[in-house]
Prior knowledge:
Layout: E1 2-6, H1 10-22, E2 26-31, H2 39-56, E3 60-62, H3 68-76, H4 84-102, E4 107-110, H5 120-134, E5 137-138, H6 147-156, H7 168-175, H8 179-203
Parallel strand pairs: 1-2, 1-4, 2-3, 4-5
Amino acid sequence: MKVLLHICCAPCSAYPIEALTDEDFSISGFWYNPNIHPYLEYKKRLFEVRRFLKILKIPLIERDVYALVPFLKKILNRQKGIHRCDVCYELRLRETARIAAENGFDAFTTTMLYSKHLRHNAIRQIGENIARESGVEFLYRDFRTGWSRGLKLSRKYKLYRQQYCGCVISEFERFHRTADKVLEYFEWVPRRKEIAEDQSKNSHK
């Protein structure tokens, strides 16, 4: 059974790839994440996905699209009552299903099902809805059961682990309460070096 695996980032893909391989599925990865911002963060994550799948010898189909403005328009102009994250999930899963259908895959799924921080039931429902429309099966698995295993694999392969989901809104929600402490750290590190150098000079006088 050929499965197209949408990959949101390398760390989240480690356990799903292992689990699906153990089930003897033929896996290809698919990169399509216009939700990831800013640009350097987007490039870091894409670089790690390429590196990781090359190690595992798994094919990767890429839709390398950085679309900050179009993505934010979709999020901000969503219908009332719809969660912004659900718009993001649907955008990526719909494209995954399209590519799966065009390339003869039997099913599609996503590494978003691995994260404990995303709206898991919403991802499943959206995937199943798209499957009915596209005619390509949505392969559901609760990859959260392998959370600890995924962390071990991330450390084994030294994968870059990001600190927020992807979009600039999630970045703000992740850091707005701790930003001052982060800045204090960056201000203190070079200052600490200066203090150590001054102490060293004084000790030799």
